[in-house]
Amino acid sequence: MLLLLAVASFTLLSSAHASASKVAGAWYAGWHATNGYPLSEVSWDKYNTMYYSFASTTSDVNSLSLQDSDGSVLPQFVSEAHAHGVKAHIAIGGWGGSVYFSSDVATAKNRTAFVNTVIDFVEEYDLDGVNFDWEYPNKQGIGCNIVNSDDTANFLSFLQELREDCSNITISAAVSVTPFRDSNGNPSTDVSAFAKVLDYIAIMDYDIWGSWSTAVGPNAPLNDTCAKSSEQQGSAVSAVKAWSNAGMPVDQIVLGVPSYGHSFSVKPSDAFVSGTTTLAAYPAFDASNQPAGDAWDATGSVDACGNYEGSGGTFNLWGLVDGGFLNSEGTTADGIYYRFDSCSQTPYVYNETSEVMISYDNAESFTAKGTFIKNTGLLGYAMWQAGGDYNNILIDAINSAV
Fold it and tell me: What is the pLDDT of residues 57-96, one digit of tens each?
């Protein structure tokens, strides 16, 4: 049984769009607009909100950059969204675009300037909302972000000013599984002031386990309270509890869900429970041998800090089909081993020949997350990213559940 924090009614999605008060959203990666996922392939009728990703912060508080996200597509994105009755938002930041958030909100002068920058951007592109994806206030993300112990307090002051000057747009934030860090570097115990200026937060319940971890674990666990303490790295259940206990109402929480998973190099001797063909939980993996992901996986590039990045080993759901792990129905392909973890409510697949194990999400795990959203009274979901699904398997599952 899933641990449910609260029970509240949740308006059913109609055949077209969710209720205006609920969020059925996805991030749209602008860099795939001309490379793998054009706007013409978006299943607009499955959503009511879409976040164009990303506008990046720059060293100039008076400007935002779309250089890495094919900014020429943004006007068409807004036009297409509006034509289908979908709210068009801009996501600012992301892993590579959060370098200058701290300096943008560090002083009263900068905050006012950044408010004007955001408002001008919204008006220029006729946007309906802004999603701030600062990774992370008072915590280093990509490696070269400016970080200040007052980041969270300064972010709040900025949002208060933005809300006062711009009351007609939706303002949201993509956040970690723990509340914003306070000046001492600990998760904040009171974020109620943020609830007054943000329409909602979207908890990024993914990348919980990956190549940086000590074992193969769930990329996006729904629950971890049933796991050993060493295996409790964060989950939807624990994140909602942490944020709500700190003062964020559950009906202002959107659950971020992934359309991708992480790959690991796992020897058969570690992959299986000894003497069986049952996949083991939390097996060891070879961190020195990162399996390449699907066609969208980074094959080696320089990041926003100027550092070389190798393969990330990510597989979108369609990539798992292309890679022979899943069949066209999204279920396990012949010759592939499968395990569904009842605690995290997430699946794993393993190819014994290539020795590649992948933690990912499928229709069953998305159904479980949709049920959690419904029963807990959350505001909805947002998927990273729209282009990662395959034949709407994931989005149909979560829509049906909520």
Answer: 999 999 999 999 999 999 999 999 999 999 999 999 999 9
The tokens describing 144, both together, are: 């070269």
Which segments of 56-211 does DSSP mark as H helices, in order?
Answer: 74-83, 101-104, 108-125, 151-165, 192-197
Q: At which residue do the structure tokens 């629950």 appear?
A: 223
- For residue 233, with 0-12 CB atoms within 10 Å meaning exposed, 13-18 middle and 19 or more buried, which class applies? middle
Q: Given phi > 0 = left and psi -120 to 50 = alpha, else beta, which region is 140? A: beta
Q: Give the up-direction half-sphere exposure of residue 261: CA atoms within 13 A in the CB hemisphere.
A: 29
User: Closest Cα to residue 386, out of 63, 110, 45?
Assistant: 45
Spatial separation of the C-alpha atoms in residues 327 and 149, rounded to whole Å:
49
16 pLDDT band, cuts 50/70/90, is very low
Mean pLDDT along residues 93-110: 98
Is the CB of residue 89 less than 8 Å from the CB of residue 82? no
Euclidean distance between CA atoms 177 and 387, whole angstroms = 23
Specify which residues 131 forms β-bridges with.
91, 172
Q: Does the pLDDT value for residue 2 go beyond 60?
A: no
Is pTM beyond 0.90 here? yes
Q: At what angle do helices 393-401 and 363-376 cross, to 10 degrees?
A: 30
CA distance 83 to 130: 19
- From the list 315, 330, 344, 339, the residue with the least C-alpha distance to 395 is 330
How many residues in total does the chain contain? 402
Tell me how crowded residue 147 is: count the other CB atoms within 10 A of its CB: 16
The per-residue DSSP string of 80-119 comes to HHHHTT-EEEEEEE-SSS-TTHHHHTSSHHHHHHHHHHHH
- Is the four-CA dihedral 242, 402, 263, 300 of positive or negative sign? negative
Contact of 347 with 339, CB cutoff 8 Å: yes
The secondary structure element, H or E, covering residue 323 is none
310: how many CB neighbours lie within 10 A of its CB?
Answer: 12
Amino acid at 349: V
**The pair of three-digit structure tokens given for residue 288, joined into one six-digit string:** 């020195």
Closest CA to 176 of 232, 148, 135, 209: 135
Which secondary structure element, helix H or strand E, spans residue 250, and what is its range?
Answer: none
Contact present, 97 and 52 (Cβ < 8 Å) = no
Query: Do β-strands 253-258 and 200-204 pair in parallel, antiparallel, or remain unpaired?
Result: parallel
